[in-house]
């Protein structure tokens, strides 16, 4: 324990990479402040029982989905919830918590708030009040992070001068120097590498290349499932919205030719998109790289085992172009603030150096946010805006955001389509504040695929946040817009189940703008709402549509819910579960409020009691929400 008295431990739990980026910044600044020992560790790589040996720990935690902790925090959190931990278990530990969240969601920064409360319960003492970064802030989460960090360093400097003896180097950017990158790239000629038949159209070879790229990527190697679960091909690409409508929503059918796909209703399919080959080539050319050479990437740590991949046998060389295309998001993700700071050290032109230093400073934070995040400027665009910068590939490997998988709710039932998954996808496009047209990488790529070309789609099945209901459970489903996707799977599955067993009724509330333009899956819903179908009144079910713009006064799903209060309360009394899916903006809160009003009106209980009743349903798994931005 004595060896850890002057150590600062930074533990992070990240889903998209932002929390990891913040944690690394905390570590860098602590080192600049003279901290003799700093360790930055992902929570899933830390033995939680060792918290009792620490003096000061900084926690950086993001919140995902409906207030959930990131995957890398789940084991850590389960340990902290053990009942045998006493109220004095963490006595003597000083800590600080910084959360990353989005106030557009109902459970804003829930993971950080719960962690802070649990650490207090276990006897730990906060150094400063928790910080809550908000994506909705005009400067993003850094609008809160900058002043919070400044307060943290000042307090730590006062109470633990041996841990942080000086904060002057943190406060004065002019004193900053550039340390070495954390990783090194080893280059191999084609003659050194054992050649294989490199056919990227071969699913087995393609899978191996993806696995190698992800194992080698500094930002991706912590994941347990680098290897795709399935390599799928598209067999149907149908537009669901009317031609000419400003929103393009598609129905995709993806198929596995080699095996049955193991999934359940309520699950999500994660897809690794392909980047534009022209952009990949432009990035490689801009960085003066050889696309055909082979590389391995390893930590810059001489104490680790041999860096020769032929000796340790763990890392296989990969073609540089394949690594960039499969692991580095150079065409859709915006670089983070530290990227600009590192660029400033490699700027040959003085005016570019000054601008990059300004962007990396606290004073330039707001202007950087407007230039970078608000405009969704890509890594390639930033590099092209600063032509005198020639960053070493080692730094690019470390700092370019990883190419991440995109998740989509599955809209088919495995009972109906054992070797297929269906997706309902809105093709993302928007205009930036400076009137630049932007498109979502994955949705646009999928929309452009021709089912006849057999393009390979690397895919993973991800267990969803909507638990699959048993056939005897009555259901109240609310899914406006593409929120209907998982419920198409629910209805399809129950319709098949009803052929061989007794099933309970379903009430489904759908919403869209116009009957004629975006009534998604119209024929599917109507076919199940009539002729004794699973949504028919004869079966105790119901299908209710809110067309928001087909009349002067807008009508939304919450209005339809209030209209059907008697039927909803009757089904709830029969033990029904409520499922809500769709946009994370106002819809979940508006629908929840309408449900509380229905419960209050039909039961005679107060609004507060109705709200508590609904929360109790949530705890027992009978009130589920899945939203996305």
Global outline = globular
* SS field, number of helical segments: 21
Reported by name, the CATH topology of the domain at 2-175 is Rossmann fold
Indicate the mean pLDDT: 91
Kindly provide the radius of gyration, computed on alpha-carbon positions and rounded to a whole number of angstroms: 26 Å
CATH-derived architecture of the domain at 2-175 = 3-Layer(aba) Sandwich
What is this structure, in a nutshell?
The chain has 21 helices and 22 strands.
Would you kindly provide a written description of the structure presented here, covering whatever features stand out?
By secondary structure, the chain is of the alpha/beta class. 33% of the residues lie in helices and 19% in strands. It contains 21 helices and 22 strands. Strands 1, 2, 3, 4, 5 and 6 form a 6-stranded parallel beta sheet that branches. Strands 13-10-17-8-9-14 form a 6-stranded antiparallel beta sheet, with helices on one face. Helix 20 crosses helix 21. It starts with 6 loop residues before the first strand and ends with a strand. About 2% of the residues have low confidence.
